[in-house]
Specification:
By secondary structure, the protein is of the alpha+beta class. The chain contains three helices and ten strands; from the N terminus they run E-E-E-E-E-E-E-H-E-E-E-H-H. The chain has helices at about 75-85, 135-145, 150-160; strands at about 5, 10-15, 20, 35, 40-45, 45-55, 65-75, 95-100, 115-120, 130. The two termini are about 25 Å apart.
């Protein structure tokens, strides 16, 4: 797809984005003791987060839509992920339970603290995030997919909040 005509401003935008990412967990305060790295975050020495990809299939396109999100995981799972960070066998790990720590725009009810499973990928690849299969709109979109119209609606929402 080579762009879209925005229903909010009437302009033609050259590109329809298929990915958005949160720079930090929703709880990030940038306190002196907090640590924010590109893939990992620790807040107050007691809250642990990993970054991942929440993928939504796009039924009428050749590519998926992706939310870059943060997930709160247990201290044990956080340090287990660190221990296996560069190990190709990390893909053999069972999923890590977590809570979605990113409030995604356009969802009612909100997405903060949805139950998730974090699936590790080979070194160099971000984990895949699976939302608990409920009736929440995000879970439904991950399970059933979305359309290009929905991708455009997200683009317009983020371009014209």
């Amino acid at each position: 797809m080579t762009g879209y005509t925005c229903t909010s401003c009437g302009e033609h935008h050259e590109e329809l984005p298929f990915a958005y990412s949160a720079p930090a967990p929703a709880f990030w305060q940038d306190a002196p003791t907090d640590v924010l790295e590109p893939e990992r975050c620790v807040i107050s020495g007691e809250h642990y987060f990993l970054r991942g990809r929440l993928v939504l299939p796009v039924r009428d396109a050749d590519q998926d839509f992706e939310w870059g999100v943060w997930v709160s995981v247990s201290k044990d799972n956080f340090f287990r992920a660190e221990e296996l960070w560069d190990d190709p066998k990390r893909t053999d790990e069972p999923p890590y339970f977590g809570w979605l720590a990113t409030e995604l725009p356009g969802y009612e009810p909100g997405t903060l603290n949805l139950k998730t499973n974090l699936h590790t990928r080979p070194p160099g690849e971000r984990p895949l995030i699976e939302v608990e299969p409920t009736g929440h709109p995000l879970a439904v979109e991950q399970r059933d997919g979305i359309t290009l119209i929905r991708v455009q609606a997200v683009a317009e929402l983020l371009r014209h909040p």
